């Protein structure tokens, strides 16, 4: 059994880790920390866990995380970097769900996240935990930077095209939409029910932290300089993420060949579902599951430019976009089948 | 007092016309038809109107619409074209909220709407009822083709740029999102609460009827051939529409000059609110009102192509996107101030 | 023109007052205060008001409210009691939307609201602003205690029965459901979208502040001792309140006579809609309007006790349940027709 | 492996059975029928099942259900009664999720469901499938009448009190609230998103089919004549049911003793969570899981009648209220641990 610790279990990625790990056959939940909730049974905060998780939150200084085999950081940016060095030194693997190790470039990190990086020596070693594009590296990693939710969809949608060299890498557009849980479990007016229900808006259009992460990762798959316009929006739903991607084709290629590019790219990936060409994936088809689904479209109607490709990508932002992906990485790091404990079927309706 | 008739008052654009016209100071609601609901008091179907509208639905053959000064068609496509000729001949003005007269090109209409056009001789005369781009023609019109909801946002967002010749007309993208009421009041599984709540999806990506309408109208404002990718999505909210528009700048122009283009274009338009550069308009800021709000963004972050412009446009799809716009046209046609009866402030929260 | 001041305009009852008063034909908005938002244009906080309200928030000490004819307090409990004496002394009428003057009994107030009452000498004079039960007193009032949202529905549902002496006053049950906006515009985890959407729960079942207010008011209409079980619930909708009231009939009385009791009681009340016996009022039929609708039911099916009466009552909690009712009181206090500026039709859908 | 057939798999209880049974370790999904969708892969209708369920709908006459060990009927009322006799004769167990066998009294069935009963000889044998109150009978049953969703909550909330004889059985009130999925996957205007979102209403107040079922079952646990007022409401959420139960205590009994009654009654029931006295269970704490949670309250505030007890009960209407309960019965019928395949933790948020 893998002994698992969770740092910062009071947010949505924390409770989602608990939901997944509590039924994972090879895991023993060992410790969960929260400075504010020291002594509170986890199930008192999240009644969905009553009778299923009997852990109690511990203050960070009251628990020895080096007894764990792996520690997940479901914390704000900046926490993992301060604790990872000691844990790694003690032989504990680390999976950070925040951004501390996502950007290889320290100054880019500090520019976007507005805090100094306290463990820059680990940036090179950290493995970007997107198994579909990085499986072998994940298997042997000690330290995982779990991808952002948006970047997961954008990368899995564009990379097969970039690799094949059939699109203009310099004019990519990602019009992305996220459920409100992506904003986290923080008391803020903007995400109150009365503010965000029956409403739709864009945010961060002039600049979002997920852009540099996405661009840096996409750049690995093409020699052309990547240019990306990324526009996030807030959807009045709890979970779910839908990215509508636009790319300009630069080569003659028919729809069957495009479809084949994707089917090939993900033929060994149990959690990527390449739907038939022209499908319209719905976010709810992934609600609560670790699946990401995508489909290609080529608008060729009267008036549409003939060389545009539209890729629709959906996932549950808290599962494949966060905690499920982290568990998927853990499985690979410990030599388990990638899908262990992640076979939940989406809740529909 | 303007005597008003409504054909087909049982859908959402019908009840919205009633909400607006019941408090319009210069209107007398005279007749409302419904084949199925003959004899039913309108307020029995829509209890929001109890005590405020005492009309009763009449079967079409039981009411003489030629007594009206103006007749609104809040009907499926195909109805207005069959009744408009007779009404016009009797001196009654006609405002069609469906698509019968939106496309000047008969064959394009028949291709997209799959029905033969029975009044093609009126296509030329019909005036496209988007007052902000067509005010003088609306004033003298006998027959108004009220624009589609999506096309209203796309045109008001792109036209100032096309007119100024600063963008590439051939590579426009409109990533549009609509509340569910846009699908109408029809018993269908896809728009059930349990199917569309807590869910997000694109639809009609390979081709949507609003594309030819939008392209034809945009083409009026540029000599370059218009190319548009239009991607509609369904948002789990009742009312509201958000179009995220992408255009490639082809001229050097700074943000202040871009902003000025829009402020200038709409300086006489009470229902278009050009928000400060970089704003994020919310759909709820227009809920129940006839306002359309828009804002410009220029993503210049690391990794973004420097020449892209993003225009965010919001409206209430049932008001400025349908019934409110129709009333706005009526006001102009009858020499009233454009804003008469349309001063409702959006419901927030 | 009535010069109106608003103290505390940054909450939902504040912005709702602005929505209503901005189009009120006899009102001039004169001042709005907010300690935190001093200097901010109101329309910057609430973009729904852009172009319609050009007031700017002022710190309380920067504005002389005694220039107003009437001041509304849309503040937390405790503010009105501290400022009302001075305003009243200066001849300004006061309408408090909070609870400061709702309970005649000072110690009951202090027990439930946990603050000392600083103006107990005004408790006797304050008029409970429920015009349907108290119209004449409202007309001549200087100081109005605007009722709580829940108590408005419970009183208007039970009073005709209590007055007639046909029910057991000692065993009343009010199972009440409110939209989330009733919790106000405060940054709290419990009312985040991700916490309260797609969810339903009761709260405060062991004791809610609206119970003593309701019981005290109901007691005015019966000699029997009133006993009330009040159970509030949170509904995942923004606006709307539905109270399901249960009473045990103690007299033989048929349905027509019961219906007549209500139609009679409210025959002069434009804002109470007594629907046909057996109707099911929907909250949305009042969304954005000042209407309260109610209907009677008598479950006589197999297995149901024959003497139970069910009364269904709906309103918009922010309009008839708060700001609309306050404006209704203002109209009466200034000799205007009760419905002035309150003729908005509910937004449906 | 238990060979399972499902009749009528295109509704919400059908797809929910598939979600549960597809990961049940002792089940092999063998056949699923649908007259309309013959030949359609199940996963084409429900993309949440892509890659997990590769069954195809078959017309009823194309599949031999007698090869199954058990057949679930997720059909409208009337179907199971027509097919059960033949299946039972062939040694196949039957679990009906509709109402065909819920009422022992044939004429009561025919009165409420408006169809003649074609298998009345099976009414006596059919076992009411509420394991918490009927576990032993379920174990040996051939034919299960799976309870209605509302009756499950009302019975589990009232029965411990009725058994103990501490409440007045003649004046029970159940104020119940259901998510919209309870209305099924039928194209109807009333449950469209635009009609039922941001709205709340009661329905069927004068009489609902679940009342006779509930009363008949409750009657088994008391000698006093049961009287029940049952008031269902529609909540704008997909899944979830909350019943607020009111009972009048007729004996002196303190809160601890009341709590003990419930803890005792359900001490062997893994799917009933008796929360601490005074808790407020949320529906989302059961979303997607087979748990039912309940809590007791005794409003003793000023003004409340001292002898009233309030019981709050929540469940997921599609799981414990339908398909999960059916699988729970199946487990018992086949000698499996009751919780097999039903350990899903609720999705929160």
UniProtKB/TrEMBL annotation, chains A, B, C, D:
Top-level taxon of origin: Bacteria
Catalysis: reaction(s): N-acetyl-L-glutamate 5-semialdehyde + phosphate + NADP(+) = N-acetyl-L-glutamyl 5-phosphate + NADPH + H(+)
Pfam families, sorted: Semialdhyde_dh, Semialdhyde_dhC_1
Active site: 149
PROSITE patterns recorded: ARGC (PS01224)
SUPFAM superfamilies membership: Glyceraldehyde-3-phosphate dehydrogenase-like, C-terminal domain (SSF55347), NAD(P)-binding Rossmann-fold domains (SSF51735)
First-listed, main subcellular location of the protein, grouped into a coarse class: cytoplasm
A Gene Ontology term for the protein's cellular component: cytoplasm
EC number from the UniProt entry: 1.2.1.38
Pathway(s) annotated for this protein in UniProt: Amino-acid biosynthesis; L-arginine biosynthesis; N(2)-acetyl-L-ornithine from L-glutamate: step 3/4
NCBIfam families found in the cross-reference section: argC (TIGR01850)
Function: Catalyzes the NADPH-dependent reduction of N-acetyl-5-glutamyl phosphate to yield N-acetyl-L-glutamate 5-semialdehyde.
Entry protein name: N-acetyl-gamma-glutamyl-phosphate reductase
């Amino acid at each position: 059994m893998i002994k698992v610790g969770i740092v910062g279990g009071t947010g949505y990625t924390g409770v989602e880790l608990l939901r997944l790990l509590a039924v994972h056959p090879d895991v023993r939940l060992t410790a969960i920390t929260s400075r504010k909730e020291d002594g509170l049974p986890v199930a008192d905060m999240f009644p969905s866990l009553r009778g299923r998780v009997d852990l109690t939150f511990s203050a960070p200084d009251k628990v020895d995380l080096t007894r764990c085999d792996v520690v997940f950081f479901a914390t704000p940016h900046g926490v993992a970097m301060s604790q990872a060095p000691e844990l790694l030194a003690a032989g504990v693997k680390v999976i950070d769900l925040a951004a501390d190790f996502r950007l290889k470039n320290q100054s880019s990190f500090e520019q976007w996240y507005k805090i100094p990086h306290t463990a820059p020596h680990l940036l090179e070693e950290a493995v970007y935990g997107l198994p579909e594009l990085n499986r072998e590296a994940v298997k042997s990693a000690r330290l995982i930077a779990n991808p952002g939710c948006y970047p997961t969809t954008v990368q899995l949608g564009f990379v097969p095209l970039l690799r094949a060299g059939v699109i203009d890498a310099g004019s990519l557009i990602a019009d992305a939409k996220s459920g409100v849980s992506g904003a986290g479990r923080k008391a803020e007016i903007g995400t109150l029910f009365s503010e965000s229900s029956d409403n739709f808006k864009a945010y961060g259009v002039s600049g979002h932290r997920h852009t540099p992460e996405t661009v840096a990762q996409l750049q690995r798959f093409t020699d052309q300089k990547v240019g990306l316009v990324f526009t996030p929006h807030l959807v009045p739903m709890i979970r779910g993420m839908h990215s509508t991607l636009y790319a300009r084709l630069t080569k003659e290629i028919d729809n069957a060949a495009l479809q084949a590019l994707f089917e090939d790219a993900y033929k060994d990936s149990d959690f990527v579902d390449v739907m038939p060409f022209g499908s319209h994936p719905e976010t709810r088809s992934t609600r609560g599951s670790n699946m990401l689904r995508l489909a290609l479209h080529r608008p060729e109607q009267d008036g549409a430019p003939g060389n545009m490709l539209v890729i629709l990508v959906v996932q549950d932002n808290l599962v494949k976009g966060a905690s499920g992906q982290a568990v998927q990485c853990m499985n690979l790091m410990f030599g388990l089948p990638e899908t262990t404990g992640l076979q939940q079927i989406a809740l529909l309706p």
